[in-house]
Write a structure and sequence with these properties.
Length: 445
Amino acid sequence: MLSEQNRYCRQLEHGFNRVFFRAMASIRFLWLLNAKTANAMKTLVRSGICACSRKRNICSSPSRLQNMSAWVIDQFGSNGVLRFTEEISLPVINVSSEVMIKVNAASLNPLDVAMRGGYGATLLNLRRDPSSVLSSSNEFPLILGRDVSGTVVDCGSGVTHFVPGDEVWAAIPPWKQGSLAEYVKLTEYEVSHKPKSLSHAEAASIPYVASTALSALVNAGGLCRESCADKRVLITGASGGVGTFSIQLLKAWGAHVTVTCSQNAEGLVRGLGADEVVDYTAEDAPQQLELMPKFDVILDNVGGDTEQWAMGLLKPWSGAKYVTLVSPLLLNTDSMGLVDGTFQAGCALHNKAFENMLSRGVFYRWAFYAPDGPALDDISTLVDGGKILPVVEAQFPFSQVPQAFQKLEHGHARGKTVVKVSEEDDSQGETVESEQGMQEKAQGS
Ligand SMILES: NC(=O)C1=CN([C@@H]2O[C@H](COP(=O)(O)OP(=O)(O)OC[C@H]3O[C@@H](n4cnc5c(N)ncnc54)[C@H](OP(=O)(O)O)[C@@H]3O)[C@@H](O)[C@H]2O)C=CC1
């Protein structure tokens, strides 16, 4: 037992140190790179002599346009800072691997509400594209929206997987301008062909939560399609965007899935395939979970004190993993600055990881969204195969983006909130209601 314990400790220390020092090195590199290139790029782009854009024949639809419509913020704050404008400069392709997408639908995530208030600005500003903002130290006007489903309208000369006219979906990294706009620019690697069976509105509900869930379950949780059959997974906060997607992915991979959610979400999560459901508002919820066989992986979408009671639910000394999506990293860098904030967060992670490894032999990990177009290709296959359904709770027209934010701020999400940016005909003609889709899935299984 002791040698097992030592082995896990060594693995953990080695892994953590590698990740921590690489992260610090990357941050330093990006900082330097950003400072050096921002001014040069800005001058080139603003004066219109950027070699790439001068050479390029920007594709048919946006070619005559200089500006586009978008919802932007010019300062951080509450819903009042959202402003509709028709005078935002069109994104310009200035790297050969970039594609320009005409946005048909977007969706909102809790991150959009947080970013509207300034969350993560310190770290995210390190990576912003200097051509898309006014200056390297000023991120405004900032366009929110992390999911896109739309049509490729232009490609850089090095793009190999997409051509104008392709219908695509993508999760937009938070350091890039978002999808609450007519057009968005991404690199080829971040984009994937949209599932044929979904309308744009349905498709927009999936990429960001899918990329986050894959990062958490696969990269941090060590799960994969091949290894899931005998795994027991607990998902907390399962009725929201990440949870409703994760249940379906894990069931498609053959895992046994237990979830926590409010009582009134039980029908939803059972319809998506959850094997066991615990109402977290019930007084005996912790006891119900303790009576169950131990878990191999816990995906925590709730944070707070969850880790205090959840750690004891993992199989001890077996490589079991607790993965949380709620970490203090960005809050720390916002309040303490980049270096101190990263250092504090690193120390907190280090301490918790060691404590849990030494006392129980379980891994403690933070997970973050990671852009991954090729992984979305696999999700597309699962969607078209009927294994994963979009869970769209509410849809808003582009004119009602502030109302969509209000809906999200209200909390108690049951799936995703979608914004239809373009009123053009959707590829499927109509949006399948999530309830109906789930009923069909439940009947089929
Ligand atoms: N680190 C990263 O890169 C990322 C982090 N996240 C974070 O992950 C979390 C989940 O994201 P997402 O699914 O999009 O969020 P949502 O807002 O879509 O869903 C949260 C869900 O949790 C439920 N809930 C709230 N409190 C509890 C509780 N104590 N126990 C069980 N369920 C609860 C809510 O319903 P109700 O209140 O009715 O119970 C709601 O359905 C968020 O905190 C988000 O910020 C998300 C994406 C990326």
